[in-house]
Amino acid sequence: MSTPQQTIKARIELPARGQTPSPPSADRPAKIAVKDLKFFYGKTQALHDVSLEIPERIVMAFIGPSGCGKSTFLRTLNRMNDVIPGTRVSGQVSMDGQDIYAPGTDVVELRRKVGMVFQKSNPFPKSIFDNVAYGLRINRLTSSKSELADRVEQALQDSALWAEVKDRLKSSALGLSGGQQQRLCIARALAIRPEVVLMDEPASALDPVATHKIEELIVELKRQYTIVIVTHNMQQAARVSDTTAFFLLGKLIEVNATEKMFTNPDETLTEDYITGRFG
Q1: Is the pTM of this model over 0.70?
Q2: pLDDT category of residue 17 using cuts at 50, 70 and 90
Q3: Contact between 115 and 194 (Cβ < 8 Å)
Q4: At what angle do helices 145-158 and 178-191 cross, to 10 degrees?
């Protein structure tokens, strides 16, 4: 008798009803375009022929069970996987029409354009001000102390943290609450003014109140940035995203407008996951 996992694998190998994942219905041009992406950890293939477009200034959520490849895929978008020995990638990832894996690509510049917020907040053991100013200083993005101060304040404003910390900018960032630390890390990412912000389960370790603030912030930030978020919380994906991509066993099963994905998905596997039949 086959196991549920074997059954799922067999079903993935069959052609999907629409043959290829549905593209998100958006009137905006693609900020990031991915075509036939494969990714390997040594001999193990983690991603299989992933193709999708991420329009500019929307929130796209990646959902799927643990180990399905969504975080691995997220990290291919700013080449964070490059630091892992033995990994390799094939296919194409383009940002504004430029292949980010092309020879000679300035990876440091790429990561300035594509910021990253991790699952666990990771403030530096420095002051609140110095945390936000860190990227500005090492990249020499400001020419005066006043400009630096203005950029730090703007980043804290954009991350909805300024009102809470403006009177203690010289205090240690480690004294902030968990939710405040995560918003500080978002401010640190925003300070260098990226074009895309990647978020890998940014609220998974937070209480409901802090989670709500992060979700409100994500919705607000899409006015200025393209946001891509990995989440295990399907209710969160439904609340904050415009489009959703469902991954399973390293394959992209479906991409669709979030409302349609959660009410009338195109693929049976998507429906099975969303309704809790597996995962």
Answers
A1: yes
A2: very low
A3: yes
A4: 130
